[in-house]
Amino acid sequence: MKTISVPGLVRIKPGAIARLGVYLRRAGHRRVLVLVSTGLPEAIGRAARAGMAGEGVEVAHWEEAADNRFEDAAAGFAALPKKIAAVVGIGGGKALDMAKYLAFLARLPYYAVPTSLSNDGFCSPQSSLTMGGKRRSLAAALPQGVVIDVTVCLSAPKILWLSGVGDLASKLTAVFDWKLAFHHRGEPVDDLAALLSDATVHQFMDSPRFDEPSLALLGTALMLNGIAMEMCGSSRPASGSEHLISHALDATAARPRFHGLQVGTAGYIVSRLQGGQQTDTLARLFTETGFFDAIRADPFSRSEWITAVRLAPAVKDDFFTVLSLRDCLTEVLQAIDHDPLLAGCFTD
To answer: What DSSP character marks residue 65?
Structure first.
């Protein structure tokens, strides 16, 4: 029987950041290091600080994470203050990835406090860092605590919520690719992890609105995707051919967009390559949420996507997806140029 570590504390509700000190005190964490995103709104930082001070939790070090360089994380580990009981990350991707990896190096509990829900990275078993200027996904540990203040997340730009919707929706094509790898290569599939990942999408689809209850559903769903990856020891429940395309865009595009916008759009296109079983589901979700409207407001480059699709199959070694079956470029171009839902989403 496999044993995994999952968050023991999960608070997804309005006002959760102000109670961060309560959660830390209850766990016995009286001295903490905090990494926050550059430009974190003053009110959010003030609420977190006041909440910790009010519960007798000492902030030994409070620092803005301007970048997500592995070299900076290693330096932070070397300079870690003594007698730190936990590491807290507050804000967006870079701060959370840096805090998560620093906690992993120091073997300390980590508390994830995302202030927007743009992707599932806040509760994944990996940290996305750069090494020598190149993006790398490095092994880390799931947070001991997840604290999501849905009121704060609702105040973030809506495009970040749409990015989270896109990242969540891409799990449908990721799980399809995982099962495809089983049928063509015999790659084992963890049925519970696959079921959990699929179920999170359909649960959110019952209420895909930009309001506090729906944000709580999205936060829960993205967190469970991270747990699904931990369950099977792989990114397979959450990442397939749509993520390969996005990674290629990150490496080659003049201006990469939010991760969830890229993988959501790629997921819709990939669903057509996979036979179309998920296409109507994704079309309905993206239409109801205004996902494609947001893409049209700042369209992708058609030529950059052509390059990315060509490069995608080689992005990860021995990672079988629908892109491994055949040259899919013609089918992708057919979707980009003729699918009415994608009209205006690409320019050149």
So the answer is: E
C-alpha angle with apex 167: 233 to 345, nearest 5 degrees?
145
- Phi and psi dihedrals of 8, rounded to 5? -85, -20
Q: What is the three-class DSSP state of 89?
A: strand
Coil/strand/helix, residue 130:
strand
User: What's the whole-number mean pLDDT along residues 75-93?
Assistant: 91
**SS3 (DSSP) at 148:** strand
Instruction: Extract the tokens encoding 120.
Output: 């599932």
Report the alpha-carbon distance of residue 346 to residue 342 in Å, rounded. 8
Write out the H or E segment, with its range, that includes residue 64: strand 58-65
Instruction: Give the helix, strand, coil percentages of the chain, each rounded to 5.
Output: 55, 15, 30
- How is residue 125 written in tokens? 């078993």
Q: Which residue has the higher pLDDT, 196 or 3?
A: 196
Q: Quick check: 28 and 85 in contact, CB under 8 A?
A: yes
pTM of structure: 0.93
Mean pLDDT score across all residues of the chain: 94
Distance set, CA 129 to CA 73, 88, 121 (Å): 9, 17, 12
The pair of three-digit structure tokens given for residue 217, joined into one six-digit string: 């559903």
Q: What pLDDT, on a 0 to 100 scale, did the predictor assign at position 79?
A: 85
**Where does the pLDDT of residue 1 fall: very low under 50, low under 70, confident under 90, or very high at 90 and above?**
low
CA distances from 94 to 73, 90, 101, 124, 245 (A): 11, 10, 11, 13, 21
